[in-house]
Design goal:
Blueprint (H helix, E strand, L loop, with lengths): L2 H8 L4 H10 L1 H23 L5 H21 L3
Helix pairs in contact: 2-3, 3-4
């Protein structure tokens, strides 16, 4: 799945905000790219390791952390 499909799936109400922020903030753009990579890796490892290993748990934590960073970057404080 491409980056924007993942973002739209997770935050349909913030898709435009994420796109705008990525356009002007290289650091935020990198977080979004890392999120895409982590989600893809998590999906891949879930398919390979059906016992839900530590590796899967690590990717789940990483995805949650990146989601928090993205949400903080697009929601009012």
């Amino acid at each position: 799945m491409d980056t924007w499909s993942l973002i739209a799936e997770r935050w349909p109400e913030h898709l435009l905000k994420v796109r705008r922020r990525c356009a002007i903030d290289p650091g935020f753009r990198e977080v979004v790219a890392d999120y895409h990579e982590a989600r893809c890796a998590l999906t891949r490892w879930r398919g390979i390791d059906l016992t839900m290993s530590e590796r899967v748990a690590d990717y789940e934590r990483l995805v949650r952390e990146l989601e928090s960073e993205i949400e903080a970057g697009v929601t009012p404080r």
